[in-house]
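Quick one: sequence plus acetyl coenzyme *A SMILES, need structure tokens.
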Amino acid sequence: MPPMNPGTKYAPYEPVNLPNRQWPSKVQRTAPIWTSVDLRDGNQALINPMSQQQKLRFFQLLVHVGFKEIEVAFPSSSDTDFGFVRTIIEQKMIPDDVWIQVLTPAREELIRRTFESVKGAKNVIMHMYNATSPLFRNVVFGNSQEQTIDLAVQHTKLVTKLMDEYSKPENGGTNFRYEYSPETYTQTELDFAVRLCEQVRVAYGKASSTNKIIFNLPATVEIGPPNHYADQIEYFCNNITKREEITVSLHPHNDRGCAVAAAEMGLLAGGDRIEGCLLGNGERTGNVDIVTLALNQFCQGIQPGPLDLSDIQSVVDVVSNCNDIPVHPRHPYAGELVFTAFSGSHQDAIKKGFHAQAQRKEKGDHVWSIPYLPIDPADLGATYEAVIRVNSQSGKGGVAYLVAQSLGLDLPRRMQVAFYQVIQEVADRTGREMTTDDITRAFTQTYHVPSLALGKNEGSMVLKSFRITDDAPPGLNGDAAAANGGTETPRYVRFNGVVARNGKPHDIEGRGNGPLSALLDALDAAFGISANVREYSEHVIDRPGVFAPAAPGATKTKAQAAAYVELVDASPKAVAEAQSATTNGGGAVRQEGWWGVGIDVDITASTLKAVLSAACNLESKTAVEIATKAVEQK
Ligand SMILES: CC(=O)SCCNC(=O)CCNC(=O)[C@H](O)C(C)(C)COP(=O)(O)OP(=O)(O)OC[C@H]1O[C@@H](n2cnc3c(N)ncnc32)[C@H](O)[C@@H]1OP(=O)(O)O
Ligand SMILES: CC(C)C(=O)C(=O)O
Ligand SMILES: [Mg+2]
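Reply:
Sure thing.
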């Protein structure tokens, strides 16, 4: 069968003749009026429309989020909808500054029923619609253009009359505004739609600059690209008279997946107001998603009016529960995975971005600028925990970021590589994502860092006590330093200490030009562990985390220091092997290094502990096994 030719089946949209269009060079600087239609358009699209209880819960969320206009029902459709409107009015659940909106078709009995439903409410937007496109005129109503205008005009006059009645104090004293929707606006001839709205405005007779009539221009079905919608809105704004008495409202649906873009371009084209649903529920592919729209504005530095989405998880919970539709994990801003980077290069950039941002902040620059994160997750109530997650696609940057976040440790770059290799191996062996908890446990166990929170693994050699004393041949240390200006002099020290080896205490002793080399000398003498230091660094732990509270025995006021040491095996056997590998390989072969970490309030003690931690790993060469066990034993 030959492939179907869509050109014979589907008609393209009709471009708008708008040679001097202005909207493409405009920039949005203010928030529109936001109107939620979750409880009407969203509700009518559900497999099971919401119960009274669910509608109440949803309504409370909408009020809490800050909506001042809420389409609460299609009251003539069912007892549930009618009853819901009565409940929120009679139980005084509508804040004084909130306008409820109710939708009715242009049918007399349904309009009357709709007015009955809102009796006694303080502020009501009465919303009437009829479809206006040729397809609907011909197929659904069998109406000409003039008959369609007549339908809208006659029923608008009825609306005006009923508004007069229901606004009398004895009938409830309601304040009314009128909204009219030429349903299927985007498929209607534009000049006809404008002519129709002009006549509706005249029939309404109450529009003024302080009581604007709302013309809601729906993309009932999204049939063209977003620039087409914008052209249609700009055309309407240019051609309707008394623009100052009109609120132009946008009501995009998402059939082509472009509702957010259509709304944004429609605002540039002159729209004042948006009707949409939280997280994009609604007929077929949904109404425009107000969460996305509002947060798109927020991260352009625009306060999205009264809307407060700083607790996005509550929004997700209520919306998905009431609609009984889950939120996609990649839904903009709200999905579970939208702040998460698994891949190594993204993690590396994010980690560097956070570091640079902290430095800029110290200089008073607070502007958010982090690679791959268009918005600060904290602004939506999300934790940074979600930002970086580690699996087999992750790199050293991500692992180091999690260690820094959970333990407050800034690993030296080459140690990041070493620990990353351990974690990669563990991820491959276990075949699953490494959680922050997994990585934290693996780290503390691999480097033998005892922690109150994470239990003990002190390794096979534990420092119990120590003393460092000057041990210079006569004339060196202080004397020689004084003699040559106090700068270049080697300083000889003696280490005396007790190290428990596999639980058994040993008095050990050594000499060197500093505490670190003196301890290495002692380890060689006592246990035959011969090693050289390749890298050493230290820092104060100044971030909240597992090690921020003082360790047992530490004074509360003194911060802990972290020391990192990399040792290489200096035994004659290892040195000979390295030499022969270099000779046979034709180039310098870098010997494997073994890292250790020490944490203590005393900087010398943290250094000595780091040496012992590295020495344990050098001796046992089982870092990956230890880490795997730590993860699996959880
Ligand atoms: C794009 C939108 O979202 S529009 C909103 C749509 N939402 C809903 O329809 C949800 C609630 N609706 C309902 O509960 C029902 O449809 C009701 C109660 C409004 C009406 O029910 P029914 O009287 O059984 O009519 P039904 O739903 O079949 O509507 C079709 C009739 O209404 C007419 N009609 C449709 N839209 C309109 C309108 N906007 N104004 C006037 N008449 C209309 C049709 O021409 C048709 O008339 P006919 O029976 O003489 O041929
Ligand atoms: C009732 C109207 C505004 C509507 O929901 C639509 O056209 O999509
Ligand atoms: Mg709609």
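The mean pLDDT is 91. The CA atoms of residues 257 and 285 lie 8 Å apart.
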